[in-house]
Amino acid sequence: MIRVLFVCLGNICRSPMAEFILKDLINKKDLSSYISVRSVSTSYETFGQDMHIEAKMKLDEKGIPYKKRKAKRLSKSDYIYSDYIIGMDESNISNIMKIIGDDPKHKVHKLLDFTEKPRDIADPWYTGNFSKAYDDILEGCTSLLDSIIKKYKIDLNEQELSKNELITLIEDKIYQYTQIVPEKVKVSEYLALSSKLLDTSIKRIQKNDR
Description:
Blueprint: E1 2-8, H1 14-28, E2 35-41, H2 53-62, E3 84-87, H3 90-100, E4 108-110, H4 124-127, H5 130-151, H6 163-178, H7 187-209
Parallel strand pairs: 1-2, 1-3, 3-4
Helix pairs in contact: 1-5, 6-7
């Protein structure tokens, strides 16, 4: 599983838009078993808030599905669980580095650095221009996905899960689940989650065997 983590200042405008835009691109190519996407902030200012209403409106306008969510802050441990940590501007990159400390595996990038015209994506919270932010993010996500497909040599015509990929997929789903549940979970809830993950994995295998 290739793990992409988008980062912006507050995790209510640019990074969640990038999360849902990339997820949509991934789903359209049937690559959800290969790539997972999350988003976080570098500050606590909007911690726990849902995506900005104008960001939702723009995604609605473009037909991009999204879910209710809560802004979360980047942690040092996110470096371990991510293959790509993608900021939106130079300020994001600076703040990311302050949190993670070092980038020995070169995971940290600016989104539009994957395009032919590297530049910052202006924060629509300040500019009010969500249309421009959307266009820039879509351009960046499209180029990022192309880069991932080429780097990992993903065959779009032959998508199957190996045993190791299946294990990684389940582990990734469990990690995502742990980010949204309380510190303590009832045994019945854990068993229900495990059963659901197993059913999903089996259905995926059956689909590939047809």
